[in-house]
């Protein structure tokens, strides 16, 4: 694998301008059957990682800025309104106080994307006009994915028409739980086709898949069916992104790349709310997949409250004094 | 680099742990240390420098102990011991608890000092060494608390000399000191000369804990000091280090009566089956061979990969190696630190350079320009014949080859002089749990590696040494049966010149591989009764008869694999058949010994057979409470082939008392019958023949104990030698045993009452078994 550590990052460009899209492969059930995930060993690796990797001072500040550039700033609530979404978009455009950014010698930082429900897409697209920040829409009967199949496909198409350039679909967990790999593959293929030029992130809802082995299999199948990203969770399951699940998914991504030459992105979502966690995730991506995957076109955090903690850490880095939430603009 | 630039490179950057507090601790002591003897630090004397291998900087000057220092330390320990033992388990528990707490309170100081001194990454000293050391004191505080209830009839050995290596300085100190103190022993401990500082900090803790003077004594110095301790008036030597030095200690202490445990080298196999989680198995190797720079006795240093996945596995492994970060051990973002000393680094380099086999891959990781480092290295495509597959490198160098089938994996894994640890990776429970017990090793990890805990025994078989540290079995190394044994009384054969009193001539032979065999030498000896009349002749076995007997015993592979129920049945049947011939045996015994106790002895022998028949399926292993989702099984395994010199004074009961526990536990035996009264043993093989005993399980030789003992003791395919001969052969046996470091159980000139309680029980069962710890983490 080529570990390109000097890849230029262009946070304002859509991902497809940097990386050829994964066209997918035939469904290879032998490969799926070979997938192994030893839970105890994976948990041991995950448990020791935070103790093995540490970034300090300027490096930490830079890593935290990188984390911000990888955030899909998200609101997925029943009470979302245009006003709320516009506020979120404003925060996505300027995630960190200008004076702090200036002190760090960085300009033009934005989050990786804004992620909303379908009805909020037009408003978000409007609010982000000219920023280059893509709008991601959760789709396909998010979060359960149990609405009629044709409606799920239609929902994708509507969102793309409304201007979403990234679609976060949910897979049918029942296909995984019953071992119906063909159905899972076909479903993902259909979703990918419906996305057209929009990038598709496949949400596995790992907290509902039962085993890490299933996570590994579902990851492979979604990539075979042309997913641009694989994503852990909707944020609505009782267990969302975890380090062990992440290890399984990024190892699947690595294997897929080794076999096909296509880079698939990774998005942990839900439960990542501390700056320290973000650093651990970045380190995991860097160590397991290399620097190329520590860029917003291949890595996103699905998070709503993470940004706030990072802002406070950045102010601490600049001033030496611990910060307070009210000193940073809310979304 | 600016923040903006780092955003592009996404480098980790430096993340140094401060050494300030540890250096201040050294400065407060003027960076000069004496020994810790009788509760005080002695005045620093002539000695040597302790260096930081990462920088070469001198950390402190230590004192080389003299004979006078050792004498003083041993005297202090001796003086303190009785009082320490009298304090009782509960009294001692409080001190051990205090030491555990103090280790916890000063955890970071210990971790930083350890890393400065040894060169291991701060992550390891902080997250592994120091927490495990604390855990060992907590656990053994509990063992002290429970000793009176759980170990009735056992007492402290006395003064223990303990010599520890440089790879886990504080942790090995804990493994040695905690159980010794818990059981009421006092200690004189010598840390390795490269890494003495945390031991000296621990000495400071002993004072803070208010430990009575003399209970813990710490002396510093090199191997010469180690030799002085071995030669000192101590009751036990506990050594962790190289097999070479361990062997020398075995030879030196032979016949001294000093208890000995040795935890020595290893070349532990790391077996990867095709159905393993390969990425996890690769990650496991990071913990196996690049943990502490591979300077770990139980490092998974010998990689065995199933052929079909080998290239894929190597590819993944090489990539992982490139991601390892090698450098400043005090950096919190480092995987592999410094090698302990340039001497060790050069030794690693020499061994790797001498190798011309296979394909060598070195990690692409950048090494610091200064300091003592060696790159993580993988050498694949070796054969079992390659030197590097046999010899311990003790560095970050992994060597490997491939296998085809599970049985070939076992064969390759066991093709070694060592037997410390092993790892098995497979997602198939049938494969993993079949392989684990077949591996010749004291510790087996399933889908993992280098898992340790105070509740789980650790130690080796073969040339990896003997004795266990941790768990209940670890306490056996620091206790002995209470009470004083009587001195051994030599039992001589009767002389005579009369002919036989009656009967048809009977020819006693040797009993080898289930058949009667004439002695190789063709010589026999006359056996006379008390009245001087000829009772019969017995063959004089020589070294070739021993060779044949051991071969027959080794060939009897079905016995250890047989069910315990079957072994019990055979033992019961033996008892039944002996009982049926009780009168005849009683008469024979009376005729041989000239006493009238024959009937009683036969009855006791039948009883003993029944007792061990009963035990055969009841000496259970157990599951240990280790901090893991999974189980740590403490499995009782037979030792293997045991050679035993049977008691002279009880010709039948003695033989049965030695044979029965051994075979009940699945061992095979080569027995040298009572030397003066051997004919009961030769009669006994007829009982064996009629009791469904498989050929080779029991082999009986007659002859001169003193002549047979050295051959038996030095035989490389014998796993243990026991001696209850009335000739004290302890020294010869223990010296001979140094060759393959076989287990020995000798009488050290003490008698044993075979008719009484001492003639049977747990002590025999313990000697007949090894505890193998099998770690099985699980998780759906």
UniProtKB/TrEMBL annotation, chain A:
Ranges for region Disordered: 1-25
Coiled coil: none
GO CC terms of this entry: cytoplasm
EC number: 4.1.2.4
Biased composition (Polar residues): 1-16
Catalyses which reaction(s): 2-deoxy-D-ribose 5-phosphate = D-glyceraldehyde 3-phosphate + acetaldehyde
GO molecular function, one term: deoxyribose-phosphate aldolase activity
Associated pathway: Carbohydrate degradation; 2-deoxy-D-ribose 1-phosphate degradation; D-glyceraldehyde 3-phosphate and acetaldehyde from 2-deoxy-alpha-D-ribose 1-phosphate: step 2/2
Keyword line: Lyase, Schiff base
InterPro entries per the UniProt record, alphabetical: Aldolase_TIM (IPR013785), DeoC (IPR011343), DeoC/FbaB/LacD_aldolase (IPR002915)
Family: Belongs to the DeoC/FbaB aldolase family. DeoC type 2 subfamily.
Protein's UniProt name: Deoxyribose-phosphate aldolase
UniProtKB/TrEMBL annotation, chain B:
Presence of the UniProt keyword Oxidoreductase in the record: yes
One annotated GO molecular function: oxidoreductase activity, acting on the aldehyde or oxo group of donors, NAD or NADP as acceptor
Key words of the record: Oxidoreductase
SUPFAM superfamilies cross-referenced by the UniProt entry: ALDH-like (SSF53720)
Domain Aldehyde dehydrogenase: 48-480, 530-748
UniProt xrefs under Gene3D superfamilies: Aldehyde Dehydrogenase, Chain A, domain 1, Aldehyde Dehydrogenase, Chain A, domain 2
Active site: 263
Domain of life: Bacteria
Signal peptide: none
Family membership noted in the UniProt record: Belongs to the aldehyde dehydrogenase family.
Protein name stated in the entry: Aldehyde dehydrogenase (NAD+)
Highest classification ranks of the organism: Bacteria, Pseudomonadati, Pseudomonadota, Alphaproteobacteria, Rhodobacterales
